[in-house]
Amino acid sequence: MEYIVNGYQPARLFRFFEDICAIPHGSRNEAAVADYLVAFAEARGLSWYRDEIENVLISMPGSAGRENEPPVLLQGHTDMVCEKNNDVAHNFLTDPLKLAVADGKLYAEGTTLGADDGIAVAIMLTVLDGELPSHPPIECLFTSQEEIGLHGAAAFDCSRIHARRMINLDSEADDHAIVGCAGGIRSDMTVQLTRESFRGEALAVTVKGLMGGHSGENIHLGRANANKIMARLLSPLMATDDLHLCTCIGGSKDNAIPRECTALISVSSAEAAAKKILTAAEDIRGELVDDDAGFKVVAEPAEAPAVMLDAVSTRAMLLPMHVAAIGVLAMNHAVNMVAYSRNMGVVALEENAPTARITFSSRSAKESQLTQSVEELDALASLVGASFNHHSHYPGWDYAPNSPMRDRYIAVYRKLYGAEPVIQSIHAGLECGLLKNKIPDLDIISLGANLENIHSPAEKMDLASCEKLWKIIAEMLA
């Protein structure tokens, strides 16, 4: 295999990262990367355990003289969010990522990079490969299906973990330590559909060019949601243009802010409807943040399909999309942090399908607000005769007043860099809450390298920052 990252240390860390990028590893497709991890462990004589959901635990004894120290758990997830630009031909089930380096940053051409959380996998493999001359006993937990609901961490048998000190490697800034996170829940709305023979004129509408991003980490930045914009463009036409939906597809992940949405509609006059849509788009453009400067709406005549949704089904789709509150819903003003949010990540109204789906992701550290979100969405569904399946609930992770791991990190950061690190809780969800819930006396911090625009094709990983993260991990374990 020809590697493209050179000149950064330790070299094997970046080799391992590129190895992972060559193995397709989207959520629910982690078997091949689990095979790689098991083969890695067996080749080095390390003990390993693999469960039916493709979680892998690899253990390594302490170095000479440190065999009897308490172990440390390193943890990250093996799956990645699979997002690509519409004009990119890439099969996430079979194709390796096409990597490139520019200005000291690694990225994948037209797709997500999966540094969230491939960098964790690479760091753990580097530790297990013997890069550190001195270390305590190490346990490395590689979890699966994190990006679709933290399913791997939820399913793992934590009685196999002996460590009571843990470094999670799923953060995105090399001068931060995360010490708390939000919980969350997924909500799938199902709309029963009735179709009738197509009439009127067909119009294809596309919303594209938005930045998107992580629905927890980036929700406070005010980036627009393509699904929401589509509903705003189309909903007024129901009363004036005899609008009927035929198809509507937007987003692919509940935890990614959708960048694009496409719809095929029936209207009485395609030309008149297009003018209204494009006029409304210009109004919306003036409301967008700078990150969404690439925003574009296309409305053009299209070939008419055989059928369209009836008026009731069209309303049942567009009303929830139009009126459901999304984005930041409440702030924790004491710490100037998002407290409660909701993302409308996926709209899936496909041609001839009997039902359509709208998927939401709600986040909060407070269970009462997650309950509120469920109740609001259920009430909205009742207005249009739809139903919700609420699932993949995971708990938050509360700040610990006393944490030797946090203290150790602060001391190491001061020693290496002569500065104070940022200690914070975040609005995104981490597996730390689930693992802490299973192992109450687990002392946890979460660290990471500098990543940009995760969960989007604009994702990049700062290579020098990976070197910095490695030095911090190495010193903490030394």
How would you describe this structure to a colleague?
The protein is of the alpha+beta class. The chain folds into 2 domains: 11-182 and 396-477, Aminopeptidase (3-Layer(aba) Sandwich); 186-394, Alpha-Beta Plaits. 29% of the residues lie in helices and 29% in strands. The chain contains 12 helices and 25 strands. It has helices spanning 11-21, 31-43, 115-128, 151-155, 226-234, 237-240, 270-285, 311-323, 367-384, 404-417, 432-438, 463-477; strands at 47-50, 56-60, 72-77, 99-102, 105-108, 138-143, 165-168, 176-181, 183-192, 195-197, 201-208, 213-214, 244-250, 256-257, 261-267, 296-301, 307-309, 327-332, 337-349, 355-364, 387-394, 422-426, 443-446, 451-452, 460-462. Strands 9, 11, 13, 15, 16, 18, 19, 20 and 21 form a 9-stranded antiparallel β-sheet that branches. The chain has a 6-stranded mixed β-sheet with strand order 1-2-6-3-7-23, covered by helices on one side. A hairpin with a 5-residue loop joins strand 1 and strand 2 (56-60). It is elongated and about 80 Å long. It starts with 10 loop residues before the first helix and ends with a helix.
